[in-house]
Design a protein that fits this description.
Blueprint (H helix, E strand, L loop, with lengths): L7 H13 L15 H4 L5 H13 L2 H7 L8 H5 L7 H7 L6 E2 L2 H7 L8 E4 L4 E7 L10 E7 L8 H13 L8 E7 L2 E7 L6 H7 L7 H19 L5 E2 L8 E3 L5 E3 L6 E2 L8 E2 L11 H6 L1 E2 L1 H17 L15 H9 L19 H14 L10 H8 L30 H27 L5 H12 L1
Parallel strand pairs: 1-5
Antiparallel strand pairs: 2-3, 3-4, 4-6, 5-6, 7-10, 8-9, 11-12
Helix pairs in contact: 4-6, 10-12, 10-15, 12-14, 16-17
Enzyme class: transferase
Organism: Apostasia shenzhenica
GO molecular function: ATP binding; protein serine/threonine kinase activity
Length: 466
């Protein structure tokens, strides 16, 4: 039982005795455990409730800005606010995110008035232009190339997707996530400023093959980098489900390091006892998990399925959906999945452009992993941490057959969007030179052969030129 609360006179006498005679032993008494709320119940409940009501009545941005918690702001905290988020509230919400707020005029200067010569590409969000920023534009800015993305007011994505990009990429920092440098929120204009990724998207590098075929180890490096980005999102203190993982959203820097971009469809993941997030089905046909399409239930395992599709694209060199192929081969997963678990049939689906220049063991293990990621039941799929641990050791395998790697160059009229880049042009010329040398060597071997007839020589040369 707790001791009675000491009287004020008792406390004063003990303090007085201690100050006048420092050598006297201290007076010991035990402070009882009590609550002021329990002693005065009518004085606190109404004020506390009133404080909570005032807190809830404030705009979400101001509540977050006033708080001292270092936790990441949830997208739902801002997007579900009853009042539209003003530019001032958004900047207050992202205090400490190290984002620059640009004016429209500044970004016009950066991109030379959004010149067509600076045009990089266009997606569901809107057009993207290359630019350059430095300290002359804004003190403290590191001189660097940037990509400026404009919201197309007539496009399929709107302000909410733009806000999601700012909220998620403004706070999330990881080597395998593209860096958001700043944004513009001025009148009806919505723009985003990212670091420039010189090699473009995985989609362009893998499927358009204008410059060169991606070697096996480069494909594996890209898969590992993208997997690490997803792992970071899924294991964050407040988990994030990417929801739109696909080849066009994986950007590559000069060293082919993969970085995830376009967080317009990202969602805060389930927390506590929740097992999933129920949301409207959105994404890209061919990449979405079957349970998400059927029920709208979104989990981290939905991202794992999408990763399996991209890994299958890297293995086969085929798009997730290709309407130009025969009907049975248009959906990549439906066509190739049953080959993945059979090592003896893998050569039927492996990208022929690799021409056998890959690790047999690495391909078999990557194919088996893709098969697990594409499991119909989410519980049967691995988590992204396991995916990274499975793929990383494959980079060390060196059972790759030695031989010349054949580069392929596009025909007349096939050029890349960013052809003006000097580095890209130099790479293209070098690959063209190598390709010409290969053809000359092949022609010389044919002419030196004593068993080739004129007809056979003509056919061989014609087949090589097709």
């Amino acid at each position: 039982m707790d001791a009675p609360f000491p009287s004020p006179l008792y406390i004063f006498a003990a303090w007085r005795r201690r100050t006048t005679n420092p050598k006297s032993p201290p007076t010991k008494f035990k402070m009882p455990s009590f609550s002021w709320k329990s002693l005065l119940p009518g004085c606190f409940s109404e004020t506390t409730a009133a404080g909570e009501r005032r807190k809830k009545s404030q705009p979400a941005a101001r509540r977050v800005a006033a708080g001292t918690s270092p936790q990441r702001i949830s997208f739902s905290d801002l997007s579900n606010s009853s009042t539209p988020l003003s530019p001032q509230d958004l900047s207050l919400s992202l205090v400490g995110a190290d984002l620059h707020i640009f004016s429209l005029e500044e970004l016009k200067t950066v991109t030379r008035g959004f010149s067509t010569s600076n045009f990089i590409g266009e997606g569901g969000f809107g057009p993207v232009y290359k630019g350059f920023i430095d300290e002359e534009l804004r003190p403290g800015l590191r001189p660097q190339a940037v990509a400026v993305k404009l919201l197309d007011l007539q496009g399929s994505q709107g302000h909410k997707e733009w806000l999601a990009e700012v909220i998620f990429l403004g706070q999330l920092r990881h080597p395998n996530l593209v860096k958001l440098i700043g944004y513009c929120y001025e009148d009806e204009h919505r723009l985003l400023v990212y670091e420039y990724m010189s090699k473009g998207s995985l989609e362009n590098r893998l499927f358009k093959k204008v410059i060169a075929v991606l070697p096996w180890l480069t494909r594996l490096k890209i898969a590992v980098g993208a997997a690490k980005g997803l792992t970071f999102l899924h294991e964050a203190e407040k988990p994030v489900i990417y929801r739109d993982f696909k080849a066009s959203n994986i950007l590559l820097d000069t060293d082919y390091k993969a970085k995830l971009s376009d967080f317009g469809l990202a969602k805060d993941g389930p927390q506590g006892d929740d097992t999933h997030v129920t949301t409207r089905v959105m994404g890209t046909h061919g990449y979405a998990a079957p349970e998400y399409i059927m029920t709208g239930h979104l989990t981290a395992k939905s991202d794992v399925f999408s990763f399996g599709v991209v890994l299958l694209e890297l293995l086969t060199g085929r798009r997730a959906v290709d309407k130009n192929r025969p009907s049975r081969q248009r959906n990549l997963v439906e066509w190739a999945k049953h080959y993945l678990c059979n090592p003896h049939k893998l050569d039927r689906i492996i990208d022929p452009a690799l021409e056998g220049q890959y690790s047999t063991k690495g391909v078999e293990k990557a194919a088996a992993l893709a098969y697990q990621c594409l499991a119909h039941s989410p519980k049967s799929r691995p988590n992204m941490r396991t995916v990274v641990e499975t793929l990383e050791p494959l980079l060390e395998l060196r059972d790759i057959p030695m031989g010349p790697f054949i580069f392929t160059v596009g025909g007349p009229g096939e050029t890349e969007k960013n052809e003006g880049d000097d580095e890209e042009m130099a790479e293209r010329k070098e690959n063209s030179r190598r390709n010409m040398q290969r053809r000359q060597r092949h022609k010389a071997r044919l002419l030196q052969s004593s068993v080739c007839t004129d007809t056979e020589l003509y056919r061989a040369q014609r087949n090589r030129s097709i």
